[in-house]
């Protein structure tokens, strides 16, 4: 497996694969890989001839005061894991390679980016869609793989691909969890021992809502209150948002009649964690 | 030559050409073709195996009160001209085919879109970059051809292609003029007989500035004043802007030391015409 730093070089690898008639699967990541990312890579490998993974901590999607500088990085470890997962090439460009003249062109999805994480992190999704568009144009994959953990991101990317007629199939892969239910995240490494012990309460709260849904509860405000109350029992947890939104429009739901996304963001100390559940109805 | 209405069908034509190892040149237009467009098509034909031209009057790039409804259309005549120019396929989608769910994803280039036509037509370039990105993703050409008449558009598209890593070479083709110097434009058809007679004053004013530049004049404010004064002698002409800007940054120039774009927009009755001149220095 090769680690490629330059756009021109990854383009050559892609062109070469294309000449041989091979299909290309792409897994864009910010690195510090965990089992969630590896699952995406294995999934890509199972359906595409060649898997390219990118590792790029994209400054454009971090706001002022967010954890861009502190975001964990470990390329050597990442490379070992990606190779095991069958990745053909890692594309790990520098910030200068990706933004040689800063950035004056942006891709923006409106409406579905104002709520949930978009409300807490203004400009975040513009940074995500812009870098993903750049990476898509560089790698030109047949299929691209995203994790369900970043539920809103997956919905935004799908919308971008559809609206802008990208010839790429977007595959969303289920959340991978630790044994106690905590959703895998590169940011989990920031949790203190006590915070780490407390963090599975997010998944427990989502499960409680799911049980109520299975029992027939359809009042979203009530379910939201149950989730907030459950998380509120943990003094280390500081809720950013808990939301129950229509799965397509991402508009807030009052009475659940179709598929919804139950999503939450909660801070434990300096660490902001997200988790979610899809109820197909 | 085929007229293709559906995205899926033009994709098939492109995929088929690719399989045969053919290169694709793309000429995006809003139709009502004139010699300027035909020159783009011939230029494309001279360097690419296959030429695809799009004809789509893009509502997204027209502001409220602009001439979207009135924009001239004549697909039969366009098809005959394009066929003569060696175009392989015309892609002429409906608005519904291009924007089946409205539009919630946009491509925006900032900075260089605030001035010149961007100042007079807010949102215009966002509409242009968004539809061009969509068309690029549908046609996936090797080279795309734009006219120098829309100088700012060409600069904005080039910036978008570079910033977002599109694997497309953008070719800008010189302005084609009527015998009296009026830049060819689909909108010239709106001019009354007297307006049409008056309109070549735009090119004459640009030529006067060029002569002064050749004679050594470098004061942009003075040159601008000369152009405005020249156009001002024509009572039918109502100046929207006359500007002398750095060719790359599109920032206003005071003393000309490098390449500049001398651009103007002038109304004759209901018709807004643009013209420009590049001084390479």
Describe it for me?
With 281 residues, chain A is α/β, with parallel strands linked by helices. The first copy, chain A, has two domains: 2-173, Rossmann fold, CATH 3.40.50.620; 186-275, Pantoate--beta-alanine Ligase, Chain: A,domain 2, CATH 3.30.1300.10. Chain A has ten helices and ten strands. Chain A has helices spanning 7-19, 35-47, 75-84, 95-98, 116-120, 124-139, 151-163, 193-198, 201-214, 220-232, and strands spanning 2-4, 24-29, 50-55, 89-91, 105-109, 143-147, 169-173, 237-246, 260-268, 271-279. In chain A, the strands form two sheets. The first copy, chain A, has a six-stranded parallel sheet, sandwiched between helices. A three-stranded antiparallel sheet of chain A has the order 8-9-10. In chain A, strand 2, helix 2 (35-47) and strand 3 form a beta-alpha-beta unit. In chain A, helix 9 (201-214) runs antiparallel to helix 10. The radius of gyration of chain A is 19 Å and the shape is globular. In chain A, 43% of the residues are buried. The model of chain A has no long low-confidence stretch (mean pLDDT 97). The interface between A and B is medium-sized, with 28 and 28 residues. Strand 5 of chain A pairs antiparallel with strand 5 of chain B.
Summarize the structure.
Two copies of one chain form a homodimer. Chain A has 281 residues and is α/β, with parallel strands linked by helices.
